[in-house]
Amino acid sequence: MTNVPKGAGDRYFVYRPLLDLIGFTEGTDKGRGYNETLAYGRMLDGKVTNGKGPTVELVSMTLKELDALQTKMLSDPDNKKLNSSAAGRYQIVRTTARAIRKALPDRYPMTRKFDADCQDEMACYLLGVRGIDKYLAGRLSEDALIDNLAHEWASLPKLDGKGAYAGQHAAISVDRLRNCLSEIRNRHAKGQPVREVAVEVEKPVVPAQVEKEVRQKTNWFTSIFSGTGFLGALGAWAAGVDPVKLLIIVAVVIVAGLGFLALGEWIISRIKSIQRAIAA
Fold first, then answer.
1. Helix, strand or coil, per DSSP, at residue 173
2. Which of 73, 103, 116, 176 has the fewest CB within 10 Å, making it most exposed?
3. Could you report the per-residue pLDDT of 71-116, keeping only the tens digit for each?
4. Residues paired with 52 in a beta bridge
């Protein structure tokens, strides 16, 4: 999940706009925020004072104590209609909290405090489950993410602007949610490493002029040791030479000529081989 290292500010800076939006839509930010429970404390013991029920310090509770409190909330006779155990800024219910603990037991032991950092972390985990990171990576459409989020937090709208559950009204418009997601995309983009444009480096090649000159030298040797001109001159000169010496001279010349020819062809072959290797 995208975040900044500990000690470098808000660990959830990228997701903070959506976290704050959920705090608004769930109504907890107008209450006690991270310490808020379902119906502003109404389901703790059924007492209500000026629209506000009894208060608890959720941020000082362990996850074990939170589970016990949520179990108590569900057993409240006045909670039969809602049948909810929502707690904290993001109104995480008991079923969800237990699922998170089961998925990440080492990260969420029962002894961990349900403080602000824990609640932010759990909310970001739920954002990840609903596809926020796939969305930022371009692997999930914005429309799909919006509908996913509406099924996690009923106060967020589906694409049609309505809540995902019967009787639940979305607290904001789809456009407002899209604007929030746009801010998240911007924050995410700024936190990514800059990708330098790859520049193709020109590969050194054997100059074509080298091959041309080698070919010219080889042709010179070829012209000497092949053709009627050479054979005619050789016949005129050989007329006055001892036959044995002549044979020896001719043999030496032929061997030398063949050697020069082979050497020239070998050089050309090597140059072409080098050119192919460099071009590969």
1. coil
2. 103
3. 999 998 888 888 999 999 999 999 999 999 999 999 999 999 999 9
4. 49
Residue 92, strand partner residues = 87
Residue with token string 């808000």? 10
CB 132 within 8 A of CB 145: yes
What is the phi-psi region of residue 49: left when phi exceeds 0, alpha when psi lies from -120 to 50, beta otherwise? Answer: beta
Nearest partner of 89 among 124, 44, 52, judged by Cα: 124
Alpha-helical (H) ranges within the chain are 16-25, 42-45, 63-74, 94-103, 116-129, 132-136, 142-150, 174-190, 208-225, 228-238, 243-279
Q: The whole model's pTM is what?
A: 0.66
Hey, what are 240's tokens?
A: 């006055």
Residue 66 is which amino acid? L
The two tokens of residue 260 are 């020069």
Q: What is the spatial distance between Cα 40 and Cα 32, in angstroms, rounded to a whole number? A: 8
Nearest to 166 by CA among 178, 174, 158: 158
Residue pair 115/34 in contact by the 8 Å Cβ criterion: yes
Count of Cβ atoms closer than 10 Å to residue 222 Cβ: 15
